[in-house]
Every structure is written in C-alpha cells, then in structure tokens.
Design a protein that fits this description.
Pfam families: DUF2188. The chain has one domain. The protein contains 1 helix and 5 strands; from the N terminus they run βββαββ. Strands 3-2-1-4-5 form a 5-stranded mixed sheet, covered by helices on one side. A hairpin with a 5-residue loop joins strand 4 and strand 5. The protein starts with 5 loop residues before the first strand and ends in a 12-residue tail after the last strand. The relative contact order is 0.23.
C-alpha cells in the first residue's frame, strides 16, 4: 500500500477522508470527529501524515505517524 498522506476535508455538509492526490474521498462522515478518527487510523496504518482542514479550507491540524520530515530536536 502506498504511503499517502490522509486529508480530512469539508465535503458539502459532510466531512471526507481523502488520500493525497486521490480525486475521490475514501469515506464520508457526518461529523469531523469521526472523520479525524478514521483518518488517524489510516495514517497510522500507512505510516503517513494526517492533515485536517476547517470548513473555510485552512489547515488546522497536522500529525505525522511515520517518517516525520521535521522531527523535534532533542532537548538533552
């Protein structure tokens, strides 16, 4: 399975989880919380990133579940 980032995006009056670059949604949800939970599990399984948008399209959440391109620096 390809490691595609998962996006949670508004889709009319619903929320969609969509793999990055896909033209169709993987799954639709009535609320954002359910979409985030599904997207999080998918991103964990694919070792990819979860990115969520607000209704206005602005990104408001990002979390990496795989190879983080910008890991935090060690504080030791």
């Amino acid at each position: 399975m390809a490691k595609k980032n998962q996006w949670v995006v508004p889709h009319g009056d619903k929320w969609a989880v969509q793999g990055e670059g896909n033209s169709k949604a993987t799954k639709l949800f009535d609320n954002k919380t359910d979409a985030l939970n599904f997207g999080r599990e998918t991103a964990k399984n694919q070792h990819s990133e979860l990115i969520a948008q607000k209704k206005n399209g602005k990104i408001n959440y990002k979390n990496s579940y795989g190879n983080d391109p910008n890991p935090p620096k060690d504080k030791k």
